[in-house]
Amino acid sequence: MPHLFAKRLRHKCSIDNRTFYPYAYAKMPKTIKTTVLRDNLSEALSEAKDDNILVITKHNRPINAIIDIDYLEDLLMLSNPKFMKTLEEARDDIKHKRLLTHEEVFGDLG
To answer: pTM score, two decimals?
Structure first.
């Protein structure tokens, strides 16, 4: 399964002018055989929720994966250039203390 992990390392992201590989520090995903998955779907879904990714294998080769939906959303956001630009701008605003108070954002709600 190392080749699966190596493929993931090719996808890089940039935040604050720093390039990194999101999977570089991730642990190897757990695997489950298709035959085991068939009889243990509920447990497999729970495991994917806990570990973010569960790779499905057939004849010891990865064929698919079950991925936690929250983790998938995070990955999709990281691959969105508009989101990355907004994140960089927000971090710059925090760094330079360009912040709004609760009252400035919401006004008098009473």
So the answer is: 0.53
Tens-digit pLDDT profile for residues 41-62? 999 999 888 888 999 999 999 9
Determine contact, residues 30/47, Cβ cutoff 8 Å.
Answer: yes
Inter-CA distances, 72 with 12, 55, 65, 67, 78, Å: 16, 14, 11, 7, 10
* DSSP-derived secondary structure for 26-67: SPPPEEEEHHHHHH-HHHHHHHHHHHSEEEEEETTEEEEEEE
Domain boundaries, the chain: 2-97
At 19 the three-state DSSP class reads strand
CATH classification of 2-97 is 3.30.70.20, yes or no? no
Specify the higher pLDDT residue, 79 or 25.
79
Asked if 65 and 54 touch (Cβ cutoff 8 Å), the reply is: yes
3-state secondary structure of 15: strand
